[in-house]
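Thread: quick sanity check before group meeting

JM: Hey all, I'm pulling together slides for Thursday and realized we never actually wrote out the predicted structure for the chain we discussed last week. Dropping the sequence here so it's in one place. If anyone has concerns about the input, flag it before I start.
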Amino acid sequence: MITALSLIRATIDSGQPLSSLTSGFQRYPQVLVNIRVREKLPFGDLLGVQKVVAEVQERLSQNGRLLLRYSGTEALARVMIEGANQTEIETYAQQIAREIQREIGAASSVS
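JM (edit): ok, ran it. Output follows.
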């Protein structure tokens, strides 16, 4: 509801139609991978994860987005990647998930 109201306000404030405001918007495929973890250590402390994340961010460059976070309610790490190529982002997400699993994964792991 807040997003819809914000969108309406931006449209009114700009005096332009929504189609004009979104003309440069490009939608990318998105993938989300959940990894069950034993503990929620800061990702900055997981050197292997940091290495893989840096490599993926370099490959994505300005053509994608990576979000790595823990669930607030479950023992899960979440890897979300958006990018131009679905196959590539799935591969990147799995690479990061495998490294998280290797470093802090629980017995039942990736979903």
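AS: nice. Helices lie at 2-14, 18-21, 47-60, 86-104. The chain has a mean pLDDT of 92.
JM: adding both to the slides.
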